[in-house]
Structure formats: structure tokens, C-alpha cells
């Protein structure tokens, strides 16, 4: 649906040049939630603003449904921009207008007649869960409610794509989760394609189907969320993933445990998708004459399924342990032997 090829943005100031977006090529599919994550200065804001040409690209192409918007004349672009809704970190609401009037504003600009406008605004207010607050002003709302208004306003012209520019970064964790749930329900209900940028891996884990990791203007890694979380390739991605997984930060604790034992094997299992539902430990303890001591475990849900890790110590005869490990491997779960007994 969206095809981005060799997209580049070079900012030139008097004293320096900044390559904010550097040769990015990627495709975004219709109906998916696509996340872009990166540290501050990676070029995320520039990238998302290039997609609807709020920023002019230095070079490269952006095609939406095979239409190249990078070469489009301004008059045509204005119409094409209605296919994009956008929400912002600081909401960008009109403070002197009521909630109702904020949401009606893009419809007024698009020349929608008053009675149709009313119908649409009330439908949107209901969709974002703000019924009864039509006459309130933005200053009377909480941060989460303000973002709900932002979302309703962004959806007023029935866009195909919703661009989210750090939409939850100004919100507390609980409100962030509520807004993310709302975005998922809108994605499902309306089949809306969502592109979001964030510096929080939690946001990617919770709602995205695919992710691109940005660093110094480049995409250093891209893939399905589950794949990227389970097997991060680049150093930057590994750092992001570790932030989310407290167990990864506790590797030292496991290591010191391993060092203190000399008569047992220590195993780490990587569960992905359906395998997270298998009662593997219980299966092997019934099937084989081994003793198992569970050390640590975690499970994390994503839109594409869950993934998890489990550390355990296993005792028994060498060949029986070997068979038990073979059994686990045959079930499709990845086994890492952290400590092997000779
Ligand atoms: N209008 C501009 N003029 C010059 N340089 C700019 C401009 N906008 C952004 N930059 C530079 O481009 C680089 C990427 O900035 P950008 O805001 O896109 O990154 P970001 O990943 O969104 O970071 P943040 O989350 O901190 O906004 C930075 O080095 C920034 O200083």
C-alpha cells in the first residue's frame, strides 16, 4: 500500500548539514500497524513527516496505492493528504474550541455540510469513548482524553492511514495503554493502516505487527515484531529489546548461580507463539527420570503472539538429560545449554 524507496532528507543549515533520513526503503501493508522505533535524533519525526509531505524529501519516492506523492503538485497533494490522519505528542488541539468543534474542524475545511458534519462528529466522539463531553474545552480534559480528541479529529475525513508522532509519549503508563488499546480497536474496526513512531519499545511490543529500527537516519533492522523481539540482530535493537525484558538484565544473577553449581545442567528455553502454551517442563518430568528446578521465567504478549524464556536446572543421568533435551528440541522450542556437565 505504501512503498518508500531510497528516501532521503538532508537539512542544510548555515554551518552544517544533517542527514536526518538516509536512504530508507520499505513497504507498509494495508491494515497493518507499523512501528518505527529509535533513540532521540534517529530521524523518526522527520521520517513520519515525509510520508505525508509535511517535510519535502531531498530525494526518493513515496507511493501510496501506486500514486507517487513525492512529485505531486500542491493542489493535488492537498486532496491526497486527506487520506492521512495524524496525531501528535502534544495533541495540537484548538484550545478555544470545544471538543465537538475541534473534531468538526477538518470537516468544515473539507466543505462537509452541517447536518452531515454533526452525524460524523457524534459518531467519532462515540468511537473514541468521549460521549457526553462534546461541550468541554481541551483544558478541561485529561491527557488521555485530549489524545482521544486528537484521534477523533484525525479520523474525521475517513483517512486510509493514521500517522502517530510519539502519540503516547506525554502520557502516564496506564493512559498510554488505554490509548494503545483504542488504536488497536480502531485498526481492527476500520481496517485502518497505522504508522507510528516512538522511542518506547513497550509501544511496539503492545500493538505493532511490524517494526523498523532507526539509527542515524537509517533503518538498521526491520521485521515482524515477534521475530525482531526474539532474535534481534543489530546492537541498537538488542538494547531496545533488553529494556523490556528484565530477565535479560538479570543475566548476571543467572551466571553467578551457574558458577555456584557443578553437578547440574542449566538450560534456557526460548518459547515463541503457540509453544508458549506447551507444558513442556511437566511433560519431561513425567516422561524422564530427571529433577527440575525452575530458576526464572517470563512471557510477553505481542500482536503476533507471545514469546518467553525459561531458565531451569536439570539433574539426572547424563544420557537421560540428553534425551529430555532432545524431546524439548523436537517440540520446536529452542534450547540453549548455559551450563553443561561433562
Ligand atoms: N528543521 C530542521 N533543521 C535542521 N535539522 C533538523 C531539523 N529537524 C530535525 N533536524 C535534525 O535531524 C535529525 C533527526 O531529527 P528528528 O527530530 O527527525 O529525530 P527523532 O528521532 O524524531 O528525535 P526526537 O525524538 O528527539 O525528535 C537530528 O539531528 C535533528 O537535529
Count of DSSP E strands?
14
**Stretches with pLDDT under 50, minimum 5 residues:** none
What coarse outline follows from CA principal-axis ratios? Answer: elongated
What structural category arises from helix and sheet content? alpha/beta
CATH level 4 superfamily of the largest domain: P-loop containing nucleotide triphosphate hydrolases
* Proportion of strand residues: 25-35%
Gyration radius from CA atoms, angstroms: 25 Å
Count of the separate structural domains: 2
Indicate the CATH architecture of the largest domain: 3-Layer(aba) Sandwich
**What is the spatial order of strands in the main beta sheet?**
6-7-8-3-9-10
Main β-sheet description: 6 strands, mixed
Instruction: Report helical residue fraction.
Output: 25-40%
Provide the succession of SSEs. Answer: EEEHEEHEHHHEHEHEEHHHHEHEEHE
| Name of the level-1 CATH class of the largest domain | Alpha Beta
CATH topology heading of the largest domain: Rossmann fold
Structure, explained:
InterPro entries: AAA+_ATPase, ABC_transporter-like_ATP-bd, ABC_transporter-like_CS, ACT-like_dom_sf, MetN_ABC, MetN_ABC_transporter-like, NIL_domain, P-loop_NTPase. Pfam families: ABC_tran, NIL. This is D-methionine transport system ATP-binding protein. Belongs to the ABC transporter superfamily. Keywords: Amino-acid transport, ATP-binding, Cell membrane, Membrane, Nucleotide-binding, Translocase, Transport. With 342 residues, this protein is of the alpha/beta class. It folds into two domains: 235 residues, Rossmann fold (3-Layer(aba) Sandwich); 93 residues, 2-Layer Sandwich (Alpha-Beta Plaits). It is built from 13 helices and 14 strands. Strands 6-7-8-3-9-10 form a six-stranded mixed β-sheet, sandwiched between helices. Strand 4 and strand 5 form a beta hairpin. Helix 3 crosses helix 4 and helix 5 runs parallel beside helix 6. The longest helix has 18 residues. The structure holds adenosine-5'-triphosphate.
Amino acid at each position: 500500500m505504501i512503498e518508500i524507496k531510497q528516501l532521503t532528507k538532508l537539512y542544510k543549515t548555515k554551518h552544517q548539514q544533517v542527514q536526518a533520513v538516509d536512504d530508507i526503503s520499505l513497504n507498509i501493508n494495508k491494515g497493518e500497524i507499523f512501528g518505527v522505533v529509535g533513540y532521540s535524533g534517529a530521524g523518526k519525526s522527520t521520517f513520519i513527516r515525509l510520508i505525508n509531505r509535511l517535510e519535502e524529501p531531498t530525494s526518493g519516492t513515496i507511493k501510496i496505492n501506486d500514486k507517487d506523492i513525492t512529485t505531486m503538485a500542491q493542489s493535488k497533494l492537498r486532496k491526497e493528504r486527506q487520506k492521512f490522519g495524524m496525531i501528535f505528542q502534544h495533541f495540537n488541539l484548538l484550545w478555544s474550541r470545544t471538543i465537538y468543534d475541534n473534531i468538526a474542524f477538518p470537516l468544515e475545511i473539507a466543505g462537509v455540510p452541517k447536518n452531515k458534519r454533526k452525524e460524523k462528529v457524534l459518531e467519532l466522539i462515540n468511537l473514541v469513548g468521549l460521549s457526553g463531553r462534546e461541550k468541554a474545552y481541551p483544558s478541561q480534559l485529561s491527557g488521555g482524553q485530549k489524545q482521544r480528541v486528537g484521534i477523533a479529529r484525525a479520523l474525521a475525513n475517513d483517512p486510509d492511514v493514521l500517522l502517530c508522532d510519539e502519540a503516547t509519549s506525554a502520557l502516564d503508563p496506564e493512559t498510554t495503554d488505554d490509548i494503545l488499546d483504542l488504536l488497536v480497536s480502531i485498526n481492527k474496526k476500520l481496517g485502518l493502516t497505522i504508522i507510528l513512531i516512538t522511542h518506547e519499545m513497550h509501544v511496539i511490543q503492545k500493538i505493532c505487527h511490524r517494526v523498523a529500527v532507526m539509527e542515524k537516519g537509517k533503518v538498521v533492522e526491520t521485521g515482524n515484531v515477534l521475530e525482531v523481539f526474539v532474535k534481534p540482530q543489530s546492537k541498537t535493537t538488542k538494547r531496545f529489546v533488553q529494556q523490556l525484558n528484565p530477565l535479560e538484565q538479570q543475566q548476571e544473577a543467572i551466571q553467578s548461580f551457574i558458577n555456584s553449581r557443578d553437578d547440574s545442567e542449566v538450560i534456557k528455553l526460548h518459547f515463541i507463539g503457540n509453544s508458549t502454551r506447551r507444558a513442556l517442563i511437566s511433560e519431561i518430568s513425567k516422561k524422564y527420570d530427571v529433577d527440575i528446578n525452575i530458576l526464572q521465567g517470563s512471557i510477553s504478549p505481542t500482536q503476533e503472539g507471545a514469546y518467553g524464556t525459561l531458565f531451569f536446572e536439570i539433574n539426572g543421568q547424563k544420557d537421560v538429560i540428553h534425551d529430555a533435551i532432545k524431546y524439548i528440541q523436537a517440540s520446536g522450542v529452542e534450547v540453549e545449554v548455559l551450563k553443561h556437565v561433562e
